[in-house]
Amino acid sequence: MSKSAGTPGEITRRQMLRRIGLTALVAGPGAGLLSACATAGSPAATGSAAPTAAGAATSAANPFGVAANAPLEVVIFKGGLGDSYATEVHEPLYKKKFPQAEIKHVATQQIAQTLQPRFASGDVPDMIANSGTDLIDNAALQQEGQLLELTELWDAPSIDDPAKKVRDMVAPGTVESGLITGKPYVMNYVFSAYGLWYDAALFEKEGWTPPKTMDEFKALCEKIKAKGIVPFAFAGKNASYYAYWMILISAAKIEGNQLLIDIDNLVDGAWQRDSVKQSAAAWAEIGKYMDKSFEGLIHTEVQTRQNQGKIALYPSGSWLENEQKDQTPDGFKYALTPTPSVTAADKMPFEAIRAAAGEGYIVPAKAKNPKGGLEYLRIMLSKEGARGFTEKSGNITVVTGAADGLQLSPGNASLSAAQTAAGSNIVTYNSFEGWYKELETELRRQTNALMFGRISAEEFCEKMQKAADKTKADSSITKQNRTV
Amino acid sequence: MRHDKHPLKAGTPGGRRPLAAGAPGGGHPLLARVRNSKYPFIVGFLIVPVALYAVFVISPYIQAFQIALTNWKGISATPQYIGLENFTRLFEDEVFWAAVRHHGVLLLVVPLATIAIALFFSFLLNLSGGQKGAGMTGIWGSKFYRVIFFLPQVLAVAIVGVLFQAIYRPDETGVINSLLARVGVEPIGWLIDPDLALWAIMGVMVWQAVGFYVVLFSAGMSSIPKDVFEAAALDGAGRLTLFFRITLPLLWDTMQVAWVYLGIAAFDAFALVQVLSVDRGGPDNATTVLPLEIWRTAFNFSKFGYASAMGVALFFMTITFAALTLRVTRRERIEF
């Protein structure tokens, strides 16, 4: 895990952490000490969002009324996505619009360490790419009144078509993915899909087809095993959530998205419903085809083994191809297949996939130029901005159709085909992963125990229900809620 | 990796400094001899280190006690006081007690194993070679071995962690398992078997610590007057008798210090567990330790208040341990 930024590994850490909503506030010694001292003194001005830059008049081209000469400070997490998409695409676009504005670009891998003391002292930047291992807890920032609500952004006219709102130009679910206590605070920018990834070339050569049901999956596992290849694997040491994604996606296919909503809302007994039990039992069966040693490996080790043709199917998200590009041999063609159906009576078809927006961008409420921050986000959500991002970072954005005409990699092409096949059958994301870290930590633990055969599906459900009940009863945890 | 020093850890007794400062013999004779006129001189020397110590060690400790009484999430400037709620919560926290149990095991095994091995090695290095000229000597090549033994101590814990990741890797690409594979033994899941994982991590701790204590005990042994050994040897004492009847009793003070140091190390183990264990403290909480839970609670769960309460608990455990050890092992000092 100790890998430097810019290595392919980093993208997973960063993306996955965003995805699981690692709301960890990982401050360095200095930041922590400073903030610790800060508890003693300065009074908190919570809840107020007082922009300090003198606003200009609003117009169709300048819907937020950005002061043309107000400086803008942009903080970018410089990980797997790099920061050239900001310095070479979005910042020049902003500069083109406001030539007098001076842009200060800060690239860091330690968002929390860099920014926590600045939040405590009130000297905050205008736009933050809040990602990486060391991101700042968005929910905590929001609770302290440090985040600017983005309703204004989503309702603003789009740059490409002023007749439409920005919210109409992005993939469904994007705005919802950034809700905190029911209001949009985070702009999730990168579009990802989740499922089982395999080497299409290998499958073609061996005459294997990706399984559509769990029974087919088991039959295929036998065939793959006979060839001396591990049929399915995930990395237990640091990425067991890749496996629980599969369990929960399968459960959602059985029962429908309401299950995931109920799990997020800590509904009594949600973890002990038949859908979760069936799914957990089915995946535990698949777990038996894994080598025990995978529990002690990290994700890059397992992923590299897949590139070497030692592993057939691997659960992950669409960043995988980009993450592994240095290890992927010529002829290896990443392809995505949806998680197999568990029962014949599943509510959602096999083709249903989980697709979601990730990679959060925020505007601090107490920024000096929050209007500029909003405008910067609006530029990112333009077709030109999104296309430039895809070109620089290799990742598809939430902006619909922005990547049209770009040459897609095998993985991205497969992703796009899977998305088309899924249509409106989209499995939603688990918000509890970001809301209730303790529950999430317990789920990782129990997922390893289940998948590596130490507990049964029954025990898994029982232990998770206990953890969910504990979270629900814990008065120190702010409860969240979602309906979609 | 995020396993280096962090503020909460600074507020918990993970390091040796507080104890070292209060350790016996730390300068009282000097102070006793000081005359009034010399105070400004002494104060001039002490003011900077004491101020630094107060700011960077004492004040975080005090702040940890304060934060433990709040529900601070790490961002706001005004945490709310919630009384002793965080402490009552500790009693029902399964993971906390799992960590405490592991410290119990660490506390027994790590100091015992380290001291035993270090004593054995330092005896070999210093005294077992028989008499030569005026004094005792170690076995052949002892100077070389001394360097080798000390080497792990020079490596940063993080590096040791990464090294042992490769050594313990659970499939046949791991160093140990690839050797086992050659003699036909199935790979052993050093860190993934819940019954084995903590022992594997303790192995690393002992491996890393032994070198330092070999040097410490060597120093202790070399300060034992040679004529004591000569006299014993003349009386026909063998190596075993020399070791148990002469060396060990005369090393008691050094061993007491070693025990306290190793005990405090057993209350830490953060970096190794964080780097080596499955899912940080796993599998199934089998390796988790308090500093790791403190770190997770503060920085993952954003519960700085509760994490500080754990820190305070750890503080009292460490202090109790150190005080108990010094008291229980107190013996009459042998002057020589």
Describe the structure.
The complex is a heterodimer of chains A (484) and B (336). Chain A is α/β, with parallel strands linked by helices and 484 residues long. Chain A folds into two domains: 8-33 and 52-191 and 356-408, D-Maltodextrin-Binding Protein, domain 2 (3-Layer(aba) Sandwich); 194-353 and 428-473, D-Maltodextrin-Binding Protein, domain 2 (3-Layer(aba) Sandwich). Helices cover 42% and strands 12% of the residues of chain A. Chain A has helices at residues 8-19, 29-38, 84-97, 111-121, 138-143, 151-155, 174-177, 200-206, 214-226, 241-255, 258-264, 274-287, 299-307, 320-323, 370-380, 383-393, 410-422, 432-435, 437-451, 457-473; strands at 72-77, 103-108, 127-129, 179-180, 183-184, 187-199, 230-232, 311-317, 334-337, 353-362, 426-427. In chain A, the strands form two sheets. In chain A, strands 1, 2, 3, 6, 7, 8, 9, 10 and 11 form a nine-stranded mixed β-sheet that branches. In chain A, strand 1 (72-77), helix 3 and strand 2 form a beta-alpha-beta unit. In chain A, helix 2 runs parallel beside helix 4 and helix 9 packs parallel to helix 12 (274-287). The model of chain A is unreliable at 1-53 (pLDDT under 50). Chain B has 336 residues and is an all-alpha fold. Chain B has one domain: MetI-like (MetI-like fold, Orthogonal Bundle). In chain B, 67% of the residues lie in helices and 1% in strands. Chain B has 16 helices and two strands. Chain B has a two-stranded antiparallel sheet. The model of chain B is unreliable at 1-27 (pLDDT under 50).
